């Protein structure tokens, strides 16, 4: 082995050397080469690590044990890690490696103290920091101590925490190697961490500095409450200064190693940084961020008044900024996924579908090719965010919109208000006449149609109006797509269909809005004493609504369950075999033919639906019926054995009867005094409109999903053509591209190979799947931190009260409704629920979700079914476990643990 392959000095290292010197070493070399103040040093390369492992001789067995870990069994990970460390502890240090390390050390000066730090190749990466997974040794002095520290760094690649972290995050153990950074030890008076973006709020314009006395280990180990300085990156202005109680400092020992030194009272509460030094640090951080082109987490220290940088890495916890970035001041974005109760990432074509479909902020020019995408939406972290800036910049619109949103989705309204109230946003606000005109162009026709429904139309005609319109529009768009030739022509027509779809569908919302308005008018009349009745009867109007297409689908699932329940053998085959195999075998069992006939009829009507259906790439029920079979099996299993056929329909009918009775009580209570007859007639009309209109809530979404099915078929057809040409590996890779990319590939004389691009975008989706999208965010990345409520019982979880009532029962946490079975009577705990999830509602006794508001899908369906629901419960699927007994208070918005010690 040549010494040059074993040792690399900082001045010869760049970011491209990560495979040889790991993340920490590559960053330090890059910083040093760029002229930033980095203490001198060198890296012991991964080639030296390979030579060390080669001396062991049994690495294949050790790695096989590590690769078998699934990240869930902590004890197994601990045993495998311990066995690996024990074996490595016996491996000899290769003489060539020892000689190269000592030669580099002598060249830099043997009298200095040294920091010896681990640097893994899977470390300080843009999407995984691996912070604290391997060991660091400080104030190392002498040849023997140096070589021992290098060995201990290598062994620390297999600490319990490092092995478990890699297993849980899907990083293979064989592919991760370790370099060792050997760096002159700075003896600092002050040290700390600097973030070039606020790690708590995400705001990119704020530099956040933690500082303490002595070595930084006291801070990163949590031994002190460090000072916190927040500085505006652009102006150098201090946004806040919090002086911490720095009880101790870690100092180097003269003989090597470190010690803890208690600090006197006056020192521990003194500022570690003066204003000038804090600003100098902030400016240095901004320069380092500019060099890397992304926010950085920087370790720094000050020795004899001079600032040194001892590490810089990307801040991996920040949510990505919306793209494209605005060029006219700060903007405020709302999560499209939270509105749709589906917060998972979407591939490029699924995102483009909505950018074409959303009619706001999009210019049109008739026959223009291709249709324009909206400027009112941006993409961040493979999710879509709607730009609410125009309405929030207008003071009157802002008050109205925020007030409406806070009523329907409290946390969203609070977040919008928090960001819109900031001085920077206020400074960018302007009159907004164009915004008012734009809102008027959209709102005026809606309001006009809604008023017609409210004042003139027969409530009984609303459903037929909506169904006639929907079927006509669907038939028109199906005919247009069928007429286009398969491939590029059909994709072009798909774009045109999408660009027209939402503006056509806007004819439907007035039928829903009249229900919302009528219910609101009844509530106003009751509160002001103009009408009679109670709020309980008013709330009951939302139970058992007529005409709701999603409820009808769920009742049809209950019918399928009734067909399976009397036949245990049929239920067993549906439960124990894969979906396609189970359905093929069902006809051989008693009850199977009748079930399959009803099953085919169900798919004919609802086969285009499915979980996450706003994502065009997601399989529909007709593609993957696993969720439906899981729902049927859950209702037909032991927990549902005591249920009788038709019980679900009887329950819905009873809810409808109680709602009708509540409506009659509202009408009767309004029939008093000289004007009672007129008030009663008005109340009767509003009651009928409320029930008829609210029952139509799902029809616009149902129509959109049916049109999306046509587009989805066209995209998969194009994908199949590209597979035949060798351009893609599978047809569904087409969703990883955009329309224009697919069309260009289909029309190219020589088929391009798009498989590497598809794999790159698939990797982006996997990375973004680990991110939690914010409900609302600013264009500079800020995510508002909302204050919690103060009326919580000890250990309880808070959320938004979405459907009144209280229920106690066993929780069932469902992350994938196609894989996890909800049994009758259990409380469904989920990250979100869209219409594709609602077959589970037939069996649920209560609902808890991590996202949602009063008018989002899960809340509305829960109220219609009469099951208590609490939504917007942060971390519900992590903090609640399947089998725990919980109490869901849908009246107060509280979830309590009933098992002893569960909280």
TrEMBL record:
One Gene Ontology term of the molecular function aspect: ATP binding
Q: Does the keyword Disulfide bond apply?
A: no
- InterPro entries linked to this entry: ATP_grasp_subdomain_1, PEP-util_enz_mobile_dom, PEP_Utilizing_Enz, Phosphohistidine_dom_sf, PPDK_AMP/ATP-bd
SUPFAM superfamilies attached here?
Glutathione synthetase ATP-binding domain-like, Phosphohistidine domain
Gene3D superfamilies, per database record: ATP-grasp fold, A domain (3.30.1490.20), ATP-grasp fold, B domain (3.30.470.20), Phosphohistidine domain (3.50.30.10)
Q: Locate the Pyruvate phosphate dikinase AMP/ATP-binding domain: which residues?
A: 19-317
User: What UniProt keywords apply to this chain's record, in alphabetical order?
Assistant: ATP-binding, Nucleotide-binding
* Superkingdom classification of source: Bacteria
Q: List all membrane-crossing ranges.
A: none
Which residues does the UniProt record annotate as the domain PEP-utilising enzyme mobile?
824-893
| Name of the protein in its database record | Phosphoenolpyruvate synthase
Q: Which organism is it from?
A: Cystobacter ferrugineus
């Amino acid at each position: 082995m040549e010494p040059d392959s074993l040792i690399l000095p900082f001045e010869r290292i760049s970011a491209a050397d990560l495979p040889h010197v790991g993340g920490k070493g590559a960053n330090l070399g890059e910083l040093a080469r760029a002229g930033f103040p980095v203490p001198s040093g060198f890296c012991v390369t991964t080639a030296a690590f390979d030579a060390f492992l080669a001396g062991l001789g049994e690495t294949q067995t050790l790695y096989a044990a590590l690769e078998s870990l699934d990240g869930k069994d902590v004890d197994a990970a601990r045993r495998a890690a311990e066995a690996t460390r024990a074996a490595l502890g016996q491996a000899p240090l290769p003489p060539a490696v020892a000689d190269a390390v000592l030669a580099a050390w002598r060249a830099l000066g043997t009298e200095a103290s040294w920091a010896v730090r681990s640097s893994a190749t899977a470390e300080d990466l843009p999407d995984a920091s691996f912070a604290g997974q391997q060991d660091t040794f400080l104030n190392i002095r002498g040849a023997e101590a140096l070589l021992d520290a290098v060995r201990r760094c290598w062994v620390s690649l297999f600490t319990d925490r490092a092995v478990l972290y890699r297993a849980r995050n899907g990083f293979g153990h064989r592919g991760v190697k370790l370099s060792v950074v050997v760096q002159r030890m700075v003896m600092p008076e002050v040290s700390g961490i600097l973030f070039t973006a606020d790690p708590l709020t995400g705001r990119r314009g704020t530099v956040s500095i933690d500082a303490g006395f002595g070595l930084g280990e006291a801070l990163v180990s949590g031994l002190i409450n460090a000072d916190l300085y927040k500085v505006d990156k652009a102006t150098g202005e201090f946004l806040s200064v919090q002086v911490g109680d720095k009880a101790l400092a870690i100092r180097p020992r003269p003989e090597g190693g470190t010690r803890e030194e208690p600090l006197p009272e006056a020192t521990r509460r003194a500022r570690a940084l003066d204003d000038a030094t804090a600003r100098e640090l902030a400016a240095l951080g901004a320069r380092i961020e500019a060099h890397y082109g992304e926010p950085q987490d920087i370790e720094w220290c000050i020795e004899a008044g001079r600032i040194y940088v001892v590490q810089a890495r990307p801040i991996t916890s920040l949510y990505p900024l919306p793209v494209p970035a605005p060029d006219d001041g700060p903007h405020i974005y709302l999560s499209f996924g939270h509105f749709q109760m589906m917060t998972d990432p979407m591939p490029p074509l699924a995102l483009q579908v909505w950018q074409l479909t959303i009619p706001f902020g999009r210019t049109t020019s008739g026959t223009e090719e291709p249709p324009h995408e909206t400027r009112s939406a941006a993409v961040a972290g493979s999710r879509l965010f709607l730009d609410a800036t125009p309405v929030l910049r207008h003071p009157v619109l802002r008050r109205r919109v925020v007030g409406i949103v806070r009523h329907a989705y409290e946390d969203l309204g609070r977040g919008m208000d928090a960001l819109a109230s900031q001085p920077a946003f206020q400074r960018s606000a302007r009159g907004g006449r164009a915004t008012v005109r734009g809102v008027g162009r959209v709102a005026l026709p809606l309001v006009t149609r809604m008023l017609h429904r409210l004042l003139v139309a027969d409530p009984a005609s609303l459903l037929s109006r909506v169904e006639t319109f929907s079927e006509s529009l669907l038939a028109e768009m199906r005919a247009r797509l069928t007429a286009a030739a398969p491939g590029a022509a059909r994709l072009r027509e798909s774009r045109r269909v999408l660009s027209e779809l939402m503006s056509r569908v806007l004819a439907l919302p007035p039928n829903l809005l009249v229900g919302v308005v009528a219910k609101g008018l009844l509530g106003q009349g009751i509160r002001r004493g103009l009408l009679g009745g109670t709020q309980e009867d008013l709330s009951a109007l939302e139970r058992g609504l007529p005409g709701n297409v999603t409820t009808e689908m769920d009742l049809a699932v209950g019918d399928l369950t009734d067909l399976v329940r009397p036949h245990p053998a049929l239920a067993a085959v549906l439960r124990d075999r894969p979906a396609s195999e189970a359905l093929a075998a069902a006809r051989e069992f008693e009850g199977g033919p009748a079930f399959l006939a009803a099953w085919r009829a169900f798919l004919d009507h609802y086969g285009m639906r499915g979980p996450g259906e706003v994502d065009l790439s997601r399989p529909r029920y007709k593609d993957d019926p696993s969720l439906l079979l899981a729902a049927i099996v859950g209702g037909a299993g032991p927990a549902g054995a005591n249920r009788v056929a038709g019980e679900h329909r009887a329950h819905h009918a009873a809810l409808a009867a109680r709602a009708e009775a509540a409506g009659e009580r509202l009408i009767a209570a309004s029939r008093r005094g000289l004007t009672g007859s007129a008030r009663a007639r008005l109340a009767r009309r509003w009651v009928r409109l409320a029930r008829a209109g609210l029952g139509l809530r799902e029809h616009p979404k149902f129509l959109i999903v049916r049109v999306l099915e046509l587009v989805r078929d066209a995209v998969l057809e194009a994908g199949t053509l590209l597979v035949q040409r060798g351009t893609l590996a599978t047809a569904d890779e087409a969703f990883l591209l955009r329309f224009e990319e697919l069309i260009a590939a289909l029309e190219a004389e020589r088929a391009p190979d798009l498989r590497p691009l598809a794999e790159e975008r698939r990797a982006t989706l996997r990375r973004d799947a680990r991110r939690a999208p914010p409900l609302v965010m600013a264009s500079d990345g800020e995510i508002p931190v909302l204050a919690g409520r103060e009326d919580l019982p000890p250990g309880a979880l808070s959320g938004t009260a979405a459907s009144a009532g209280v229920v106690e029962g066993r929780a069932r946490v469902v992350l994938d409704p196609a894989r996890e079975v909800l049994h009758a009577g259990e409380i469904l705990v989920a990250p979100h629920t869209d219409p594709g999830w609602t077959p589970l509602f037939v069996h649920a006794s209560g609902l808890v979700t991590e996202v949602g508001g009063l008018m989002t899908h899960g809340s509305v369906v829960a109220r219609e079914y009469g099951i208590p629901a609490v939504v917007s419960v942060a971390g519900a699927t992590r903090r609640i476990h399947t089998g725990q007994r919980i109490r869901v208070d849908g009246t107060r918005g509280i979830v309590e643990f009933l098992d002893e010690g569960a909280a």
